[in-house]
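Async update (no meeting this week)

Hi team, since we skipped the sync, here's where things stand on the single-chain job. The sequence we agreed to prioritize is pasted below, unchanged from the tracker. I ran it this morning and attached the output directly underneath so nobody has to dig for it. Comments welcome in thread, and please keep replies under the output.
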Amino acid sequence: MVNGIRARYIERLDRAELADGGQDSRTLIDLYDEIETLLIDTERRHIFGQLERGELIDEARRHIERELDLRETHLQRNTFSALNHEE
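Output:
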């Protein structure tokens, strides 16, 4: 499910990049960050649903949560870094 959503958004990003000729990279980066944040939220909801249905053990959930936390932290750092470079 999540891979399908991710693939669709990656395709949208590729099309957007082609449409503007790569001139507006900041907008594309912001779009990517927004999409990645939505995907992280979707993955979190999905793993908690799996946990509630007994399809996932807690140890696996914690491992996946850690990976999602790392991705989220990486996005936040990139956003903070970009804001500091604009000033």
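Quick observations from my side:
Helices lie at 2-20, 25-52, 58-86.
The chain has one domain: 2-86.
Reply here if anything looks off.
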